[in-house]
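Deviation from plan, reported transparently: FE2/S2 (inorganic) cluster complex.
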Amino acid sequence: MPVTMPVTLKVNGKDRPLSLDPRTTLLDALREHLHLSGTKKGCDHGQCGACTVLVNGQRINSCLSLALQHDGDAITTIEGLGTPDKLHPMQAAFVRHDGYQCGYCTPGQICSAVAVLDEIRAGVPSHVQADLMARPQASNIEMRERMSGNICRCGAYSNIADAMADVAGAKA
Ligand code: FES
Ligand code: FES
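Because the crystal trials were delayed, the predicted structure below was used instead.
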């Protein structure tokens, strides 16, 4: 009989107690145990970014992290960012700018994109934030570099960058 250990993940605002094999990744806990299949498994080795989720507001590859390491952590998946009736601004921008084709990478791209804009803002003094976000070339280079861990086999990169620039501009 496999050994299991208790862990409580706070997923999309709700406590989700689980009893897991200690080897279970956060990705498998979300998909296989909590049935939140929005988070995708691509490579399962930290190479593609399809499994990106937010942990306490920061993005991680959930395939590289054990669920037991996240007891009490706030996990946000694509299902927690917005709803079909009330999309998150980044989700709405991806729709507006056609930021996907097959859609397999999209949940990870959107979670990453939300975190990237926060990362850029956090690293820039507040008095120049609006200026940075308003300068498409500077912010585009920074955003593209920070999104380089999210692979899109369909090549929707330029539309994804447009969607992010749109959100960045709207918030600036
Ligand atoms: Fe996690 Fe590819 S599935 S990085
Ligand atoms: Fe198909 Fe990105 S939209 S892999």
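The helical segments are 26-33, 78-81, 89-96, 106-122, 126-134, 136-146, 157-171. We consider this an acceptable substitute for the interim report.
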